[in-house]
Amino acid sequence: MKDTYRHQGLRQQLVNVLIDKGIKDQNVLKAIGKIPRHLFMDSSFLDHAYQDKAFPIAADQTISQPYTVAFQSELLQIKRGDKILEIGTGSGYQTAVLCELGARVYSIERQHELFKITSRFLPKLGYRAKKFIFGDGYIGLEEEAPYDGIIVTAGAPYVPKALLKQLKVGARLVIPVGDNVQTMTMFTRKGPKEFEQEEFGEFRFVPLLEDKN
């Protein structure tokens, strides 16, 4: 669990790459600059930890590309104390970014192996979600709704209606929609049944799977 000056220097280089790619939110950049991403990856990938690339983790999943994490986080416009639902805990890297941004995080993971690893690992780094749930992200977490924002970190073939229902009015759902290639899509709830939809280009994610594994 070492975080060396070399790692910190590599993180700063990564932050500069994200700035060059158009990330402007200073809080998001600060979070990326602080979180030791190499600790979220298999040690054999240490040299790759601060490249702007996705990499494999347990259970045939991936740790998202830092640009994607930053982009989704920026779209959410998180304010300190916001209640955020994360669909797809994965390695916990995005969870850590949300925590650094001051969010109260409720996170759902459907791969049991990943759920066990991450729910034990994140608190060791000082990142504590309000709730870690082993469950089906398609149905969200209704008992804790409504949310100030919902982030989906896997490619969804369609937008789950349950997630739209769990947003506060004025809140945002950021979700990659599509099968092989996804379009980053943001829904802003304007009223009880009214949503504004915006699209932000193509991304590639592992699929969002239904039911628990």
UniProtKB/TrEMBL annotation:
BP GO terms, sorted: methylation; protein repair
Gene Ontology MF terms: protein-L-isoaspartate (D-aspartate) O-methyltransferase activity
EC number: 2.1.1.77
InterPro entries: PCMT, SAM-dependent_MTases_sf
Broad class of the protein's primary localization: cytoplasm
Any one of the GO CC terms: cytoplasm
Sorted UniProt keywords: Cytoplasm, Methyltransferase, S-adenosyl-L-methionine, Transferase
Active site feature: S64
Subcellular location: Cytoplasm
Reaction(s) the record says it catalyses: [protein]-L-isoaspartate + S-adenosyl-L-methionine = [protein]-L-isoaspartate alpha-methyl ester + S-adenosyl-L-homocysteine
Pfam families on file: PCMT
Membrane-spanning parts: none
The protein's role, per its UniProt record: Catalyzes the methyl esterification of L-isoaspartyl residues in peptides and proteins that result from spontaneous decomposition of normal L-aspartyl and L-asparaginyl residues. It plays a role in the repair and/or degradation of damaged proteins.
Family: Belongs to the methyltransferase superfamily. L-isoaspartyl/D-aspartyl protein methyltransferase family.
Protein name as annotated: Protein-L-isoaspartate O-methyltransferase
Source organism of this protein record: Pseudotamlana haliotis
Lineage: Bacteria, Pseudomonadati, Bacteroidota, Flavobacteriia, Flavobacteriales
